[in-house]
Structures are given as C-alpha cells and as structure tokens.
Amino acid sequence: KPVRRGSVVRPGDSVSTGEDAQAVFVVGRDAFLMRKQSEASILKTGLRIATGAVLSVFAPGGARRIETGTAVIGIRGTAVYVEAQGERSYVCTCYGEAVLEPRADPQARETVRTMHHEQPRYIMAKGAPQMMMRAPVVNHTDAELEMLESLVGRRPPFLGRGYKPYY
To answer: Which pTM was predicted?
Structure first.
C-alpha cells in the first residue's frame, strides 16, 4: 500500500520508490535512505535489495546483513551504501566493518574496515573474470549519513576529526 509521512515500516515489509521519489525510514535503531526506482524487502536482520540503491546506517552490536543478487554483506555496526545493478553490486562501507561475499564465489569474501569511504567495491555476478574489484566513491554524501544517524540519535564517527567531506 502507498505510504505517507509517518508510516511505520517493519521487518516483513517491502518498500519501493518511483521515478521521482525517495524514502527515508527507521527500523529499530537502523536508518535507511532509498533512492528512486528502488525495491527492497525489510528483513529482521537487514535488507534484501532487489533493484536500486540504499544508504544504511546500522547500530553497533547484533548481526545485520544486506543481500543483493550478486552479494551478501555482513554488517558490524556501520554505514553502507549499496547499489544493486544487475550483473554487479556497488558497495561502499562508509565507516565501520563489513564482510563482502560474492554469491557466485563465497570463498572470495573480504572483510573491509574503514574510517571514511576508503574501500568501495564492485561485487560481480557469476562468470566475471574477477569477483570483486575496487570502485570509486559515488552517489552518496556525508550530509546524508549525518541525517540518517541523527534520526536514530547518533553522530557519524568521522565528525570532529577534521574530515574532508564527500559531496
């Protein structure tokens, strides 16, 4: 059903956005910004992104994960931007720790620890010559991370350290 400002989003719900829309929502102590033309299912432990892009901030503690067609991302209290792009997924661990695992080759998993967007990755589908490769920082900003963290009463860890923002 269409949602309106103030609607409740819970595990088990699906959220999708249209051409000129985005959605910002909180589930427990985690907050999400879903870009236009995106579709995701809310899981008890995170998200399953069918298409599109989602910026997420997760509370410390507790196992969380984000799933796409090509990747499973294990979250360890962090911020992650993900784009599900068909034959590949883009994953930026904005800060914190995440385990990136290609669905096509779970043995190629990698643990990424970052302070401020240092290790974005593309995670490829089966048949690609390389399962994971470095990527640039794209399509998300520090201002968006600050906004999401403020919704759950937190501040991003990079604030106050003389950081150079990504805008």
So the answer is: 0.93
DSSP states of 3-64 as a string?
Answer: --TT----TT-EEE--TT--EEEEETTEEEEEPTT-EEEEETTEEEEEEEEEEEE--SSS-E
Distance CA 43, CA 131 (A): 26
C-alpha 151/C-alpha 146 separation (Å) is 9
Q: 87-117, pLDDT tens digit by residue? A: 999 999 999 999 999 999 999 999 999 999 9
How far, in Å, are 73, 74, 81, 88, 97 from residue 126 at the CA level? 17, 20, 22, 9, 25
